[in-house]
What does this fold into?
Amino acid sequence: MTAAPGRRSSTFTRLLRHGFTDASAAERLLDSVELAPLRDDPVLLEALGATADPDLALLGLVRLLEAQPNPGARRELLDTLIAAKPLRDRLLGVLGASTALADHLTRHPEDWQALVTYESRDLHPGVEEFEAGLAGATDPVSLRVAYRHCLLSIAARDVCGTTGVAESAAELADLATATLRAALALAEEAAPEDAALCRLAVIAMGKCGGHELNYVSDVDVIFVGEVAEGADETKAIRAATRLASHMMRICSETTVEGSIWPVDANLRPEGRNGPLVRTLSSHLAYYQRWAKTWEFQALLKARPVAGDLDLGEEYVAAVQPLVWKAAERENFVADVQKMRRRVVENIPAAEVDRQLKLGPGGLRDVEFAVQLLQLVHGRADTSLRSGTTLDALKALAAGGYVGRADAAQLDEAYRFLRSMEHRIQLFRLRRTHLVPEDEAELRRIGRSLGLRADPVADLHREWRRHATVVRRLHEKLFYRPLLDAVAQLATGEARLSAEAARERLVALGYDDPASALRHLEALASGVTRKAAIQRTLLPVMLGWFADSADPDAGLLNFRKVSDALGKTPWYLRLLRDEGAAAQNLARVLSAGRLAPDLLMRAPEAVALLGDGDGGGLEPRSRAHLEQEILAAVNRADGAAQAVTAARGVRRRELFRTAAVDIVGSYGTEEQPAEADQGALVDRVGAAVSDLTAATLAGTLRAVVRDGWGEDLPTRFAIIGMGRFGGHELGYGSDADVLFVHEPRDGVEEREASQAAGKVVSEMRRLLQLPSADPPLLIDADLRPEGKSGPLVRTLTSYEAYYRRWSLTWESHALLRAEPVAGDEDLGRRFIELIDPLRYPADGLADEAVREIRRLKARMESERLPRGADPKLHAKLGPGGLSDVEWTVQLLQLRHGSAEPGLRTTRTREALAAARAAGLITDEDAAILDEAWVLATRVRNAVMLVRGRAGDTFPTDSRELAAVGRYLGYGPGHVGDMLDAYRRTARRARAVVEELFYGVAER
It folds into this structure.
């Protein structure tokens, strides 16, 4: 009695040492009657300790022994288990990896005998051997039993390492082929009259077609039917459909033996909405006229597996030429990449980090990258036309389409991730691609993959390492060989041919692949550190350029910037080390002409695109801008040098604003595009308006100091008007202003007026001088008497004019007046002077309302450019900026005196105030706001893309596509963009008709 505790303690410790986690339970199982003969057998403990889950393996063994029909059978199993190491490893390996197969063995206790010996042909069985294994199945239940019997041997070879993951996946696909044939035979046996009417071919797709199936996966198929000789076509296709449906049910339905796997026919033409079975000619007609890019991508893996194999081969032969022409389709690469992004976006947020298949760095990234390259280069190189991912990757590397080192890393990562997927599914034989969270399950998976020291931590580390490799390489895989095509390679390394490089660039959307290759050669050739860093950067940069509407311009501009800054030590370091900088630069350089033009004039501004201490892409406040400009002015020698400095700051800040706008509109890998379009518009309007005000303040200081010293003989203020006063300037807007002055004490008005006039003339001259910096045009046409009146007036003169001569349109224009520079007190008093005019105490008289409406109608008919499509004119067209602004401003003129919220120069603020005051419904306000924001975005887009201002969509197709990308429309969706604009403008015009042109009293 005293020895028991000591013996127990020794056994307990031994069990823990062999990997058991519940040693107490394991002791009880070892003490069971069934295992009594082997209670202390070291061979058994060693074998159990070698399994993925010793506790699970021991429990499964006891259950299997209990299920044996008699003591003799139990004795035979135990004797064979100890005597035959192959059986011991296979059986215990399966029991320690799969509760589902343990359950099968318990229900069918004689099946363990399948694992006793292997003939050489059993080590790599094919379809023929699996068909023999299923031959005895006479109904769905017996088919499931036979299927599990065959699956048992595949799993045993897999967990013991006799076969690798690729071989196991191929065996699973062969077993699926044999199972589909057996299921179709059962269906035909049940309906021989249907079988006589038709020819039916089953085409495997997806992983089954690619010979790389999982343990539990939907088996994707397409059915092709033809008429048997002498039969009616309609009846034949109906018969084929019944056979196909029955075959699917045989495999998919749950019985007392469970199910096999779902058969999924949704990859067929028209998906689940299309007929289950089509004739070959019907398939071809669909693919030639209607198929999308992803459908040709799916056909890469098409393989006839069951039914009429001759018909299946005809089908594959007929669709293959269409598959290899898919890369010639417009926006081919963009379509494939968009499909990949859509898959990621549809993953529930809680699952993204656990997704082994679909998540970033997952199996699908490898498969998509390989398939993309196959479709581009398989047209000319038939060696690439494999449906198996790893075989295709090997062929791509051999042909120089993928770097060998990259291919080797991806191969290793893919095998590891597929092995993880297999082990996860094998446990319960359930279809899942999620890495479990339970530590015991993670421990089992880690041990099954040979990670024994710290299985959970090591599994996570290896998984993340391989996922990182995939994430880093999967897109670069497409671009890096383009550099190798123009660079010096090691002896024996395959090179992408010039024609293959040209094909790849065309597929990416480059119009001039020859020039693109010259740029790549200039950037990446040589042995300098600069060239080495460029070779690292360019594969990713090329992908970002390809995601734009003008990849050629992006690459050309990148070469120009690199040539200008290549010898500057911080430039390439910035792009290499600061994650956002390189992608931000790629976006900016390929989005249009304006931002690159601004950057080329002073390339060092590229530093703004980084994450460092230079302020990056954070907008700067007006006070900060004014402080910097005034400091530069004070340091300068003379007005010309001072204004040059001010214009330099303006150019840099315009670039910053454009870059922020482009990056926010396009989005990056880390930050999606800004969803609030109004926020983007407000940001640009405020930034450009503040920058213009600061530039005018600096220019005013420079001119006054140069001509008069510290004090001008007259107080001087600049009043912003129009979009400038409304904080709504665009990239190409002039600065609408009024100039007001007031003679200082003791100064004659004539002297003061002359001084003020000289200031205005000199400011306008200096801001328009030809230089590397964009000019700032000052427009004072909204002054009293328009172009006929003096450029600058005294405050007293303004007061006299407005009191005696002011017209309705001038009160209207003054709604946007706001001091922007100069004497603050004078500016404030000017606003006090005009407030009664723009917010009349009694509102507007009916005649004044009618006058405003007449002016608006005349403007619509006279100012629209000849030949312009009114429905697409963002400023003057129906539902455009003018419509919305005049409607809002009419409300301000009529109700501004009574509603303080309306006393603002900003359109969107005034519209919100009108809604809050009940002057406009929520729905109408939302419609007008949406139209105004969209029209403003269109004008900003045109300026960014073309480098010059415009109020309508470009006619050039590439420029139009670039506007679309800025507005959030992907490749091929320009028509959708124009339709959306017309629809938005049409709805806004309906509101304008009612609110602006409706009855006077609303």
Remarks:
- The first strand starts at residue 198 and ends at 204.
